[in-house]
Write a structure and sequence with these properties.
The chain is of the alpha+beta class and about 475 residues long. The strands form four sheets. Strands 6-7-10-14-13-12-11 form a seven-stranded antiparallel sheet, with helices on both faces. A three-stranded mixed sheet has the order 1-3-2, sandwiched between helices. Strands 4-5-15 form a three-stranded antiparallel sheet. A hairpin with a 5-residue loop joins strand 13 and strand 14. Helix 7 packs antiparallel against helix 8. The structure holds zinc ion. The site of zinc ion has 6 residues, from helix 5 and helix 10.
């Protein structure tokens, strides 16, 4: 066994702690599994990519750093014999309103905004996460697939996604795949549920939480879920008597009143979430392209006509997957899409005639490029922009520039805003990434505010670093 490498002294201390607690708590043995932990990682990463293309992942720094701190604290509390050093844990918020959370094999975990919104305490969020984490640590996804046949690792992801998206939408995505294994991955048997509940209580106790909050959050989910019933509970069926056996296990774990139940951080995150535009439903988010702009309905939601704050002189840095790093004015919010991300100040974005629109800010993304040179690839990008912006001017020439160490092109176009009817300036910056992908940034501002925005756009471009 060469899994967790620790200093000898620490191992000894852990052994003592275990010896004290093992006697009383329920022993949990991971089920039989014909897959390797590396298979869990691969499956989970493949599914995570699909999930992140389909669902509006929050890129909100406050939310994600909070979820990461909490998640990491729970990961550290997984009992040593169930730690898998190769697992790649991640914790991300999803900007949808349903009360749900899910984890993929090998580590990626997603927590819906609705879940964070409706949890009563940090302990309740920790409870849901500890339960999900237990399925991951016990490798229940692949254990369940071990029982299912036929099974092919390459085709499972679609089924996983179907199960995640859930409800009516999910069921026909799942039908589109060859194997009806959506349920195998995320809808667990009652036996596995009981294991995840019990291991979840151990993880919570080891992390300093009161495990009874896991029992409480299941009640919260039941009570707060809207029509159609709670998705979470159909994926994680109650093995019977759940509330009571969790509390009995908690009693064995000798939990006292000093346990963390709530924190200021959690309250701050909830307050922050309330300040954002309402989250869409999962179905709405999928229809409008991964819910790129957080609006409350499918109808128009115009950017405001009022004054938009000038770009802040302080900048905030964002990491965009494995693609690039960029810094933007701190008062701009990140609105993520499937192939591009938009940064815009409050009031400057919304929906119009079913299209996402913004009046101030920057869209940054990547586009496939069929081996063209930079100028041709940029021409094509501008042509495709012109399809949804019929009054966009054409570039007279490209100015050479440098973006992230690569040769880049820059031009300024004019357009008539569909939102205000006024003239707007569009700064186009492009570069070819090392693998030939076209990288672009579009800076948008009304003509009369251009002097405020041009320096910000230049500073953003200078901050770009390619990370692949
Ligand atoms: Zn479960």
């Amino acid at each position: 066994m060469s899994r967790v490498r620790m200093k000898p002294a620490l191992v000894a201390i852990n052994a003592v702690l275990l010896a004290v607690t093992v006697a009383a708590q329920t022993q949990i043995t991971p089920p039989k599994n014909k897959y390797s932990p590396a298979d869990d990682v691969k499956l989970g990463q493949d599914a995570a990519r699909q999930v992140e293309e389909q669902l509006p992942i929050m890129r909100d720094e406050q939310v994600n750093s909070y979820l990461n701190r909490l998640g990491q604290r729970l990961v550290d509390a997984i009992p040593p014999d169930l730690q898998h050093p190769e697992f790649r844990y991640s914790f991300k918020g999803v900007n949808v309103k349903e009360i749900n959370a899910f984890a993929l094999p090998g580590g990626p975990m997603y927590i819906n905004r609705g879940m964070m919104d409706k949890a009563h305490t940090e302990g309740e969020i920790a409870g849901v996460m500890a339960h999900e984490l237990s399925h991951v640590a016990l490798r229940h996804g692949t254990a369940q697939a071990t029982k299912a046949t036929p099974y092919e690792i390459g085709t499972i992801a679609g089924a996983v996604l179907g199960a995640i998206v859930g409800g009516r939408t999910g069921s026909y995505i799942a039908q589109g795949t060859q194997f009806g294994l959506g349920t195998a991955f995320l809808r667990f048997s009652r036996e596995y549920e009981r294991q995840a509940d019990l291991l979840g209580t151990h993880i919570m106790a080891r992390a300093g939480y009161d495990p009874r909050d896991m029992a409480n959050v299941f009640r919260t989910i039941e009570q707060e879920s809207g029509p159609g019933g709670p998705q979470w509970l159909s994926d994680h069926p109650n093995p019977g008597d759940r509330y009571n056996y969790i509390n009995r296990e908690a009693a064995v774990l000798q939990v006292d009143a000093s346990r963390v139940r709530d924190t200021r951080d959690f309250r701050d995150v909830q307050a922050h979430l309330r300040s954002l535009p309402p989250a869409p439903s999962t179905e709405q988010a999928r229809k409008t392209g991964a819910g790129r702009y957080p609006t409350s309905s499918g109808g128009d939601n115009r950017p405001s006509a009022g004054r938009i704050d000038r770009p802040d002189s302080r900048f905030t840095t964002y990491n965009e997957g494995d693609l690039f790093r960029v810094s933007v004015p701190s008062n701009w919010r990140e609105l993520s899409g499937s192939s591009a991300v938009t940064f815009a100040p409050a009031g400057a974005y919304g929906n119009l005639n079913g299209q996402s629109v913004f009046t101030h800010g920057a869209e940054i993304g990547v586009a496939r490029n069929e081996t063209h040179d930079l100028a041709t690839a940029t021409d094509e990008l501008i042509q495709s922009l012109a399809q949804s912006n019929p009054r966009l001017s054409r570039p007279s020439r490209y100015e050479r520039t440098s973006i992230g160490g690569q040769q880049g092109a820059h031009t300024v176009l004019s357009n008539v805003s569909d939102v205000t009817g006024g003239e707007e300036r569009i700064e186009v910056y492009t570069a070819l990434m090392r693998d030939g992908t076209l990288f672009y940034m579009l800076g948008v501002a009304p003509r009369e505010e251009y002097n405020d925005y041009d320096p910000a756009f230049r500073k953003i471009v200078r901050s770009i670093q390619f990370t692949r």
